[in-house]
Specification:
single chain; mainly beta; OB fold (Dihydrolipoamide Acetyltransferase, E2P); five-stranded mixed sheet; globular; Chemotaxis protein CheW; CheW-lke_dom
């Protein structure tokens, strides 16, 4: 039995996040830059009065960006609320046959790969996208 994932794009690639870690999806409007932050921190977004740190996954994963991110996926990771900027939300889908990434893939945040007839989806493991110290810094930022 598969698990439901939010499928999104970064550049020309597609990624999935387990739906149970996603609190909401919102279109990006105003991002408030924060000076002297890591280059992958785009800034803060305000959702219902709460300041949420927004991470640019293009910068964090070193993926070329074709255009400005249009959406934010708000996630809860270890009691921390964080947003990730993504290009496009593609679908919510049950992913079957998730296979472990090959040994040459050293990124711990890759939870598996799904090979569909028409495309490939990299399933992310939210618990490993950020190091513990990064999460603490992001929590302090908000």
């Amino acid at each position: 039995m598969g698990s439901q994932s939010v499928i999104f794009s970064l550049g020309s690639e597609e990624y999935g996040l387990p739906i149970e870690t996603v609190q909401e999806i919102t279109q990006l409007t105003e991002v408030h830059p924060v000076p002297q932050c890591s280059r992958h921190v785009k800034g803060l977004i305000i959702i219902r009065g709460q300041a949420i740190p927004l991470i640019d996954l293009h910068a964090k994963f070193a993926i070329p960006s074709r255009n400005e991110a249009g959406f934010a996926i708000i996630m809860k990771i270890n009691d921390n609320v964080v947003g990730i900027a993504v290009d496009e939300i593609i679908e919510v889908r049950t992913l079957e046959n998730v296979v472990q990434a090959p040994p040459l893939v050293a990124a711990s945040f890759i939870g598996g790969i799904v090979n569909l007839p028409d495309r490939l989806i990299v399933q992310l493991d939210p618990a490993f996208i950020f190091r513990t110290d990064e999460l603490e810094d992001l929590k302090a930022l908000a």
